[in-house]
């Protein structure tokens, strides 16, 4: 399927989920993450969920990371440049929901992309090769292209993999893993 079709399909599927479904599926995804060999790292980038888009509730992942005493990094969006600034999440970090519904830090300690070890990547759909479809603005592809090649990229999805996503661009960054409520996909084999 083409990216545009996948965006429509998965936005519709998500719109049918209620809050309880989202929390249950998100908890299953967070538990699936515990099976991955990623927990010896230091800096973990987590997206903060856009509730109106019915995204995965990443609070469960935040609790795991806090329990393991990890450095948590969140983003602030620049919609003029379609880029992200990365901020260390601390007890003092003040978050504000922007006009797109994204909770973001107002300010804080900036963290360079090269320091981030693991990135939990939002997506609408992914395929069996590790390609992903996001909202189409390229924020995450730009961000991931600046990370170290060793940075682990983990997609989070309520749904299983598509067979194949068409229209893959040279600038599209593949995932290393994708975790769904039922499966952990690895693309490094």
Automatic annotation (TrEMBL):
Residues engaged in binding ATP: 3-7, 132-140
Keyword field: ATP-binding, Ligase, Magnesium, Metal-binding, Nucleotide-binding
Entries under InterPro entries matching the protein: FTHF_cligase, FTHF_cligase-like_sf, NagB/RpiA_transferase-like
Enzyme Commission designation: 6.3.3.2
Record Pfam families: 5-FTHF_cyc-lig
Gene3D superfamilies: NagB/RpiA/CoA transferase-like (3.40.50.10420)
Catalytic activity: (6S)-5-formyl-5,6,7,8-tetrahydrofolate + ATP = (6R)-5,10-methenyltetrahydrofolate + ADP + phosphate
Top-rank taxon, per record: Bacteria
GO biological process, one term: tetrahydrofolate interconversion
MF-aspect GO terms: 5-formyltetrahydrofolate cyclo-ligase activity; ATP binding; metal ion binding
Cofactor: Mg(2+)
EC supergroup of this enzyme: ligase
Binding-site residues, substrate: 50, 55
Family membership noted in the UniProt record: Belongs to the 5-formyltetrahydrofolate cyclo-ligase family.
Family annotation (NCBIfam families): MTHFS_bact
UniProt protein name: 5-formyltetrahydrofolate cyclo-ligase
Organism: Aquimarina amphilecti
């Amino acid at each position: 399927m083409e990216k545009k079709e996948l965006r429509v399909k998965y936005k519709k599927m998500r719109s049918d989920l209620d809050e309880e479904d989202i929390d249950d599926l998100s908890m299953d995804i967070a538990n699936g993450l515990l099976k991955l060999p990623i927990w010896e790292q230091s800096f973990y980038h987590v997206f903060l969920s856009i509730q109106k888009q019915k995204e995965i509730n990443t609070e469960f992942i935040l609790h795991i990371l806090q329990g393991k005493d990890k450095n948590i990094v969140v983003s602030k969006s620049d919609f003029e440049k379609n880029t992200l600034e990365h901020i260390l999440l601390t007890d003092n970090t003040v978050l504000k929901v922007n006009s797109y519904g994204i909770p973001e830090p107002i300010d804080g300690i900036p963290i360079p992309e090269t320091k981030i070890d693991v990135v939990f990547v939002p997506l609408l759909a992914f395929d069996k090769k590790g390609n992903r479809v996001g909202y189409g603005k390229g924020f995450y592809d730009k961000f991931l292209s600046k990370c170290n090649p060793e940075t682990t990229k983990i997609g989070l999805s309520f749904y299983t993999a598509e067979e194949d996503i068409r229209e893959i661009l040279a600038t599209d960054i593949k995932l290393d893993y994708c975790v769904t409520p039922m499966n952990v996909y690895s693309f490094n084999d």
